[in-house]
Design goal:
By secondary structure, the protein is mainly alpha-helical. It has two helices and two strands. Strands 1-2 form a two-stranded antiparallel sheet. The relative contact order is 0.04. It comes from Dictyobacter formicarum.
Amino acid sequence: MEPADFVEPEIAVTAAITAAICSPRARKVMRKGLVYGMAGILTAGDVVTTFARSVRQGVRQTEGKEETTTPTAQKIDEQEAQAAKGSKTEPETTGTQPRKTMDKKATIGGQSE
C-alpha cells in the first residue's frame, strides 16, 4: 500500500476502526461509553414508564369520579324539579346501603351474659 491510499475515506475509516479495536485504551473508553449509554437508555425508559403509569392512574381515578358523581347530580336535579312541581314522592336512594354494625356483648370467662 502506498501512502496515497490512506487518504481515501474508506481506507482511512477502516484503519481508524482497526486501530481502535487493537488499542486497549480505546476499547476501555468505548466499553465505558456503551455501559453509560445503556444505563441512560434504561433510566429514561423507567422514567417514561413511570410517567405513563401515573397518567393512566389519574385517568382511571377521574373516570371513576365522573361515573359516581354524575348520576348523583342528575338525581338531585330530578328531586329538585319534583319538589318545585309540588309532587310528594320519596327520593330515590343512591344505591348505598347503611353500614351494618354488630353489638359486641361483654364476655366473662368466654361466656356471654
